[in-house]
Every structure is written in structure tokens, then in C-alpha cells.
Amino acid sequence: MPVIPLLLTFSLALLVVAAGLASSRGDFTYVVSRPALLLKAFEAIMLIPVLTAMLVIAFLPLSPAVKAAILLMAFSPVPPLMPGKALETGGHSAYVYGLMTTGAIFALVFVPILGALAANYYHVHAQFPLAVVARNIAGGVVIPLAIGLALGRWLLKDAAPRLTRGITILAHVLLVVAAVPLLVGVWPQMMMLIGDGAAMAMALVVFAALVGGHVLGGDTIADRSSLAITASLRHPGIALALAGANHADKAVSAAALLFLVIGFLLLIPYLLLLRLLVTTEA
Questions:
Q1: DSSP assignment, residue 28?
Q2: Distances (CA, A) of 136 to 34, 35, 98, 224
Q3: Model pTM?
Q4: What domains can you pick out in the chain, each with its CATH number?
Q5: Whether the Cβ atoms of residue 55 and residue 187 lie closer than 8 Å to each other
Q6: How many angstroms separate the CA atoms of 17 and 246, rounded?
Q7: How far is CA 14 from CA 7, 86, 113, 172, in A?
Q8: What confidence score (pLDDT) does residue 88 get?
Q9: Which distant-in-sequence residues (6+ apart) come within 8 Å of 35 by Cβ?
Q10: In the chain, how many H helices and how many E strands?
Q11: CA-to-CA distance for 231 and 1, rounded, in angstroms?
């Protein structure tokens, strides 16, 4: 495996380790053990992004690579940066970490199913093997989460708060180190997509997920923002792995990364609006 993808995977895994360290008992089962919350999470994380992506693809003149990338990202929940972003907006940890578990389950169950249905519907030859998704979930969520829980609950319980901060800082530094050359490598392809409607199409999908998550998130702004952030940020690792499994053109990977960048850009005004709402309520 090349150094840059390996470093990116490792940095994202460290963020999950930090989440495990910072969590409390019962956090990761909070949503899956409450049917009403689980249904709302399904609607926000899977249903709204996928349906919006299909509508966008149907009505906007987009290249095949962009269409493929939008669908792949819409199919791919479990955003690795979600816990930190959601907690920063005041979300309570049980709901934030519970959504993380829920996203992992959704990915395992629905990515192969939705992929097979989409391939049949759009009459394309594509594979969405469960093994590819499972490897990403195992390496990106399950194993680092188990390490974080073991360190925080048993091995280094007293040092967990300091260790969490240190790991989080290291993860973000490594993420920047890995992301910059990765983006530079596909930058020409990404820029070619800006003017052909691709960016607008991706922004529509992200915006719909943000609004859907905010509306379905509950009675408090903190919970609404937690679900909105979870729904709008997608997992690039799963999308890129599936693109690789289907030997997709490099333009698909570039479009998937552009989708991720647009997601983060749209989060900026949303987070600013949240601060305004919180200040107004206070």
C-alpha cells in the first residue's frame, strides 16, 4: 500500500481511538438500542442522501464519473471526523458516539445492497463486495475503537483525558500531512469538474443531508447538529475502495474527494449558524 493512503487511513483510525478513549459505558449502543432514534438516523444518514443523489443524477447533465462518485459517497456513511465536529457543537457524547456505531452498521448492511440495486437500475457492471466494506469498517472503526476502549477503560484509565487530547492532535496533523499530497495529486481533475455542474450537484446532496439531519435530530440544537453533521459527511475510504474494486477511472476518485471537500465547505456556514442560534437561545 502506498505511503499516503496508509497515512490517511492511520490518521483517521487515530481519531476513532480518541473517540473510544473519551467515551463512557453505553455510549456506542445508545442509538441502536432506541428504535425511534435508529429510524430517524436511517432516514437522515441513508435515505435522504441516497434519494437526493438519485434525483440529482436524473435531472442534471453530469459525466459518468461524477454520477458514480456522487452515488458512492451517498452510499458511504461513517464519517471519521464526525465525533469531534459534533461534540464541538455541544452534542452529548452518547448520541454522538451512538451515531458513529449506527453509521458503521448502516455501511455494512446497506452499501452492498444499495450498490447491487444501483448497478441493476443503471445497467452498469459494478461490484460492491461486502468484504471491501467490512475491511474499511474493521480497519477504520472496529479495531481502533476496541483499542481506544481498552486503553480508556482498563489499561490507561487515569491518563485517558490527556491521552485523548494528544492522540487527537496527532491525528489531525497526520491527516493534513496525508490529505495535502493526495488532493494535489487529483487537483487538476477536481478543477475540471468545477465548471460542469458537478460541484453544484454535490452541494445539493450535502445540503439536503444537512437539512434532513437537522430536522430529524431531535428537540435540542445540539442533537440536531449531531445528526446533521453525521448525515452530511461521508466516508471517503469506503467510496474510494469501492471505486478501486471496480477499476474505476481516476476521475471517479477525484470527484469523490471533491464531494468530501464540498461537504466540509458547507459545514462552515452551518457551524456559524449554530453558534448564532446557541447565542440567541442563551
A1: G
A2: 26, 26, 19, 27
A3: 0.87
A4: 3-281 (1.20.1530.20)
A5: no
A6: 30
A7: 10, 17, 29, 9
A8: 64
A9: none
A10: 13, 0
A11: 30
